[in-house]
Specification:
- The protein has 298 residues and is α/β, with parallel strands linked by helices.
- It contains 12 helices and 12 strands.
- The chain has 3 domains: 3-87, Arc Repressor Mutant, subunit A (Orthogonal Bundle); 92-158 and 260-295, D-Maltodextrin-Binding Protein, domain 2 (3-Layer(aba) Sandwich), CATH 3.40.190.10; 162-259, Periplasmic binding protein-like II (D-Maltodextrin-Binding Protein, domain 2, 3-Layer(aba) Sandwich), CATH 3.40.190.10.
- Helix 1 packs across helix 2 (18-25), helix 2 crosses helix 3 (29-43) and helix 6 crosses helix 11 (273-287).
- The longest helix is centred in the N-terminal third of the chain and has 30 residues, at 59-88.
Length: 298
């Protein structure tokens, strides 16, 4: 059904003139006349009377004009709703995040977004690097918060650098001011899993460091516990270790090494207004020093 014909009909009836309606709609008068003739052919009866007075409805037209108004109103409401969906999505933002991001930056960001968009639901799921970035690539997430990884062809929005620390047993001989990166050479190194190994391996490769790696498949607290029980040494980031009171040494690595924490989206992803706002809020919180100041960063 071509609703544009019904819209034109309403303009002609309400303005009482084909010429006025044509001018309003950007049609030629002959074009509008042809459109109304075609509409009457479709309906099977005349709906307009033409004369020196302009145009007015026939009795048949009078009977159906209210329904036509309802039809046009419904079509306009549908178009409006479609545009809202394009702009605001389905009222759900699906976020994949490293657990360290989900526990620090994201709660205040989501809280702020909820104040501005109370009808928008934010779903947050943590997981391994492969699970999160694989989910983003497959469309199961709209946005991911994690470390920038060149293996994935995403659009990256940089947030902050997350500095690496050596995680050492309490009695391990080390300068509290800094642990030289080559100090990992030849050591029994507990390699964190869950995708963190990509970030650490990149640091080791950059500096030519070759420890004896024990690959693990445990979370970060488990790594810290293993170090605490003298099963090896490791490396974790400041975002993970801050505000913890484990019985281990945490020493900044020299030269300073860090992973780039970022927001990832698919290059072809059309972001809704709430998604764009969520990203802007996250950037504002980082810029204001929220993560470092309120969470105890040095």
């Amino acid at each position: 059904m071509n609703v544009s014909k019904y819209k034109a009909l309403l303009y002609a009836v309400d303005l009482g003139s084909f010429s006025a309606a044509a001018q309003k709609l950007g049609y030629t008068q002959s074009g509008l006349t042809h459109m109304m003739n075609a509409l009457e052919d479709e309906l099977g009866f005349p709906i307009l009377v033409r004369g020196y007075f302009g145009v007015k409805l026939t009795p048949g037209g009078e009977r159906i004009i209210s329904r036509i108004r309802e039809l046009v109103a419904c079509e306009e409401a549908l178009v409006t709703e479609i545009e809202l969906v394009k702009s605001y999505g389905d009222n759900v933002i699906r976020i994949g995040a490293f657990s360290s991001m989900a526990g620090t930056l994201l709660p205040p960001v989501v809280e702020k977004l909820s104040e501005e968009f109370p009808d928008v639901t934010v779903s947050i799921q943590t997981g391994t690097l492969t699970e999160l970035y694989g989910g983003l690539d497959e469309g199961r997430f709209d946005i991911c918060f994690g470390s920038k990884n060149p293996k994935y062809n995403f659009k990256w929005i940089n947030l902050f650098l997350d500095r690496f620390y050596a995680i050492l047993p309490k009695d391990y001989p080390a300068d509290p001011e800094g642990f030289l990166i080559n100090g990992f050479n030849g050591t029994k190194f507990l390699m964190p899993g869950l995708g963190f190994d990509d970030d650490i391996s990149a640091v080791f490769n950059e500096h030519g460091v070759k420890p004896f790696v024990t690959q693990t498949y445990v979370d970060d607290p488990a790594i810290i516990s293993m170090v605490e029980h003298n099963l090896g040494i490791s490396m974790l980031s400041e975002l993970i270790i801050m505000n913890r009171n484990d019985d281990v040494k945490t020493v900044p690595i020299i030269p300073e090494c860090a992973r780039q924490m970022s927001i990832a989206t698919k290059p072809d992803k059309i972001l809704t207004i709430p998604m764009k706002r969520l990203i802007a809020i996250a950037k504002d919180f980082v810029k204001s020093g929220y993560v470092s100041d309120s969470k105890g960063w040095k």
